[in-house]
Protein 1
Amino acid sequence: MKVEEVEEVEEVEKWKKWKKWGRELHALGALVVVLGSIVSAQVTPARLERAADEAQNWLMYSGGYFSQRYSPLKQLDRTNVKNLEMKWILPNQVFGAWQSSPLVVDGVMYVTQRPNDVLAVDAKTGRVFWLYRHTPSPDARVCCGSNNRGVAVVGDTLFMGTLDGRLIAIDTKTGKAIWNIEVGDPKLGYSITMAPLVVKDKVLVGTGGGEYGIRGFVAAYDVRTGKEAWKLHTIPAPGEPGSESWKGDTWKTGGGSIWLTPSYDPALNLTYWGVGNPGPDWNPDQRPGDNLYTASVIAVDADTGKLRWHYQFTPNDPYDYDSVQIAVLADFTYQGKPLKSMLWANRNGNFYVLDRTNGKFVSGKPFVKVNWMSGFDPNGRPIQTPQPAGQPTWPGNQGGTNWYSPSFSPRTGLFYVTAWEDYATIYRREFQDYVPGRVFGGGGGRQLLPVPGAPGVRIGRTTPINNWTNAAGYSSVIAIDPVSGMHKWKFEQFDMSDSGVLTTAGDLLFTGGREGYFYALDARTGEMLWKASLGGQIANGPVTFSVDGKQYVTTISGNSLVTFGLRD
Amino acid sequence: MLVAAIGLAVAPARLAAQDHGQYTQTEIDTGARLYSSQCSTCHGPNGDRISGIDLRRGQFRRVVTDDDLMRIVTTGVPAAGMPPFAFQPAELTGIVAYIRAGLDSSTPSIRIGTASRGKAIVEGKGACLSCHRIGGNGSRVAPDLSDIGAARGVDMLHRSLTNPSAGMLPINRPVRITLKDGRTVNGRRLNEDTFTVQLIDDKERLHSIEKRDIRNFAVETTSPMPSFTGRLTSDELADVIAYLVTLRGQP
């Protein structure tokens, strides 16, 4: 028997014990909820597997392993949502865009703030239990802001990735670090902005740094010790499958960052990771070939880290179309047969349906204006139509959508995504030498604007005056029927939005935008049922939870964490 | 501080820099290449993508001198997410040269005349203050020009004078609103979002209007400003631009 197999058997035994322990604790947890006590049970792996059904909580980044950002809570519905009022507000003491998505575990909210703080907050009152602060090394290099999007939890432990490429385990009760390991070297541009994902006894992360010529990877660590369990590079080395898509040494600086949380199908034991742009970003002449597995989704065995399949959205990507978006998993009938699908609104402007058992392309269709490709071949490979130099490409550099979470409601059967419309970039390629730790961009681009020199859309909203206007682009929430690919409805805003989407069993859809309005829409029709003018830009997805039988909705607006509930 | 000198010298930043013998075209070109590969991802092609910082206009959070600029580039601002850059001395000089050149390495083809003569034209023959306002004088119907030299490049000023509709920023477009109660409001747009629009009307009153109260909402793309091609000689245009460049919002 090989050593690996011995370890695997041991892992299985440990897992069984943990599962049993989890069931016991889960029963205890149910009792605790009945008693309405403030004492909380541990979050077991078994609870994580059923997280999406645990209506009162929000146990992982996207709500559940299928990443639907859908809650079974239905106390709030289309009839009473107009009675929402603000229950509490917690201002961030750290300046800068706040892209975190909170967790809620039995009445305690865990949210990160810049650069790498974690706050434990009473979810009912907004009062703070503890603050954990990690000061990233001055070596940290992040292209696009000191963002952190949240933590993962299992047992009594939270996990946070850091801007300086570390992974830290933190005690849920005391806010003290348990272990702290290096995942990637910050001097070479490795960083972590994503919320990790816990699967069984492992915590999974990937690294950012796609603008620094990294060689991206995903890795799993033992939740108790931080010991590396497996590691899979997103760029294959010579001799490995996929390495034929790189020439010479270009794979060494091939990019393939990971900066959003993966999804997971427990039945298939596969984790699904969106992979970022190739390096250098904008000069494909420097890296001929398809550049696998950049701008792709990869399916990775949760126990071994083995690559099971991949699908590439944008081969040899010259547009910085990171395919990091959240993979939404949903089961439905497609052309008369049950389909285990993966739904994906990609930065490249297409909405995809894939078969998540094998990665087969089922359908693809633009959800915004697209001119970089004209259609798909039978295998789902895009037929690329590069625009002449100096001509605009739709969608623009920040994409038809990007990192903010979409949603899927099993009740409506619709997929919901925030889209950037009427937005294009004129790209420019330049040869670029790789220098460790330096931006490895290979050019860039400028936004197509109606007046030369006029202000364009920025990465985030930094002023209360919209002086770029919808002439530079605007956002909408689009409801897509995944079976037909047709748009069911659309809700347009005047400015761009980086807000994710939350849906609930009350057939409500919560979202926001850069203008600082927080909305409740009718998930079936798109009709606006309620709005609050919070002022600060709303980025990332809202979450919902309940405490003592009352449902709440939380969003971040500007530098404030805001929670709404029904009038008492 | 060079930026102040630029305002006084009444010339685009790069010309001033050359006149003062501060930075060479080679240094500026070096900086331009580095900027586009290393800086523009965060700071944007126009240097204005980070809140509170506008490199083209010399607006910073922490920097005053060229030495400050070099130090910040070298050490980064980790708390704000700016990484340190290990540039060679010549590269550092280039970056500073390019920033101090207003992120413009091309030779401006726009002629710059004499500011004092331009001021006289703006206040006299050009009748600019019948719509615009500068330093507390003139009408508020058209945009206040008190900081226009900081807000716009020379090329944009020239375009606005010779082809106003092509140079008008979308936010400044004239709006014509008919409310559901029959009232009309015409003016210049100040701000807009999904549900409201803010404007200043032709009587200089501020309005914030909810779109649900609007029956008809027209946003015009034609500027009410006439072209000054033909109204002013090319020498006079050069003088007006020279004056506008000095307007940097510092009364």
Note: The interface with chain A takes residues 33, 36-42, 44-46, 48-52, 75-76, 78-81, 83-86, 152-153, 155-156, 159, 166-171, 190-195 of chain B (CB under 8 Å).
Protein 2
Amino acid sequence: MKRIIYTLLATVTGVVLLLSYRTSLEAVAPASTDATGGATGTDSGTSGSGTAGSGTSGSGTPGSGSSGSESAPGSSSSASPSASASASSGLKDGSYTGQSTETRYGPVQVKITVSGGTITAVDVPVYPTESFRDQEINRRAVPQLVSETLKAQSSRIDMISGATFTSDGYIGSLQSAIDRANA
Amino acid sequence: MTTGEVHRAAWTDEVMGTVASIHVIADAADSIDPIPNVRACFDELHEADRLFTTYRDDSQISHLRRGTLRLDDADAQVHSVHRACVEAKTSTGGLFDAWHQGWFDPTGYVKGWAAERAAIRSLEPLIRLDGVYAVGLSVGGDMQLFTAPGSEWVWRVGIADPLRPQEVAATVEVVNGAVATSGTAERGSHILDPRNGSNAVSVAGATVVADRLSTADLWATTAVVAGFDDLSWIAAPGVRSGLVISPSGAVRRWAQGVEITQWNGSAAALF
């Protein structure tokens, strides 16, 4: 039972690391592997951790840009299904906090909440934000809420995703405005 | 190829009861002639509409329903969609069910499927041409987007706020992939829960980013049926990230099968 939880936490930590350090594909594998090794121990200490970050030592790679970061979701998806697969196999309800994993950007620590045998929430209480480039890449992984960033409101928008409008509804839509501006 | 000067051209066409938009991003206004591809793409959407619409008696779906056409004799596209709907019913645990009315009605699946197919067949080849950075197709708010290898172009997609018309609730960046949104914002509450025939009401809008539009569209619709409290499906194959918005404005977000509920202060500013 405890082992499952730690494996889970490690997997989640791995996912978080993947999300935050997807500066190159090489950086991805060591991050998740090391997190697993670290978290199967006790929930204190930061053993076997620095490697998660130092695996990214080929850090010139942020320049690899859009194609590099885009391909990462495919490689990281192998980590996430395992989290949910094991999550549905009868976990005890409650909150579990993983060990803090030291990276070259700072500590990463995750907390999962289990309810009804499945993970209902993943919190990231400690999250490194030092690297601007990582933040840039991070932004692509998750939809950014406009309410949380003033920047998004003034930024360029290329397409609008929304519930299907009718042909008549299109006329007054944001997508219509974008299309007309470029027609 | 880096992205230097950016020219964008857009075309629209009415199809499937909505409007399709094609955008081509290139280094110069006249570097290529995308018109044949644009026409071919719109033609494919119209063809799919003719085959699958339930609004016309002479579509293959209408013939299948009346029994004047056997599935064995139907178009190959109908076979593909039929097969995909069988799989979708299984993969969504019955939350998506093209047979919930007692006959085969793939309306909820076809738009995304047909848009993905038309985009891959007619538009994606454009990104292999010199000078083209990116090309994308949106059909009524569901899109498949492509970017040329080596280009620094990133599609910035605004997610319409289901509670505030004309406003954007969130943005998501995509290089290659699909974004689909389902909800009650534009056509009223019209997504039925196939399990009990009632209207699904706990999600005002669900947006899914996936590799392919058929996947994004299927799971965006499924998310509305599953409800705001149920994100158990987010690790489905091909699904990357997304969000659901409740009628009261609450938001749940996830990426790579993991819900992201809380970031520390400095990180929160980023998302």
Note: The longest strand of chain A covers residues 106-115.
